[in-house]
Amino acid sequence: MISPEIPEDEQRRLETLRALKILDSAPEExxxxxxxxxxxxxGVPISLVSLVDSDRQWFKSKQGLDAEETPRDISFCGHAxxxxxxxxxxxxxxxxxxxxxxxxxxxxxxxFYAGCPLKVSNGSKLGxxxxxxxxxxxxxxEDIQLLTDLAAMAEQxxxxxxxxxxxxxxxxxxxxxxxxxxxxxxNLCKRKKLPVTVMLFDLDKFKPINDTYGHAEGxxxxxxFTNVMREVFRESDVFARIGGDEFVALLSDTxxxxxxxxxxxxxxxxxxxxxxxxxxxxxxxxxxxxSFSADHLISVEEMMAEADKLMYEQKKNASR
Length: 320
Known about the structure:
Layout: H1 10-19, H2 29-42, E1 46-52, E2 56-63, E3 69-71, H3 77-80, E4 87-89, H4 102-105, E5 112-119, E6 125-133, H5 141-165, H6 175-192, E7 196-204, H7 206-213, H8 215-232, E8 238-241, E9 246-252, H9 256-277, E10 284-292, H10 300-318
């Protein structure tokens, strides 16, 4: 057996996949419709929309398979995302890469596999739309085109999620995506009696960056600040770009000391980036943050409004 190689853009690919918040999400009819169509059109027992995570492939939609996920190192889809077009294995027993693969020797006893990579706007391939059969078979050119067309439809559905919930420039949540994720987190914190902290950030002197260095440099500054946020915040934290130069973060289960540590780490990391860049300007920000105990949680909009007031107080004091 030969495990799949790691794509060259693996870090960006995983960041894009995780930003979509699609992993471990509930089944959706728009994806299930496609796997049902694929299963029926090709007459195969198994059809999947598979997303390749760092160490697993997880099935957003599955027809004919009970498993929710399988290890990445034995996945066929891990190989499929390395190429551009359809990846087809007519008979896995005849292929050195797969003939002793556990998915071939044991259930689901894969013999035939065909998968089309699912690509998003930045070029990353997040997973596949794939067909699996327990018997060897071939696909002709018309079949391959049909599979490619179905994969393109799956890509459109992923793009719709991306457009609706992600900021196109920074590839983190936009306001709409943040509100959805934050409301879910707050409801969870209410049930588990956990505190919540909201931080609202506004980049200082951002307009002069655009005016002096151009909008492309302004975009780079926004991306740089986003990358520092990615380094500092936990995977369980929800953060987003909610306006031109405004960002927000919602942290769960953090006490005052932990909040202070996050703020100090953010300032230190950004200072390090500024010093290393020597670009003629520094990225600076004002932040307002406020914490709520589990017994006093209010709506996400109200929390943001409270943090916003504190942020503008800081901005006002800094300009004096």
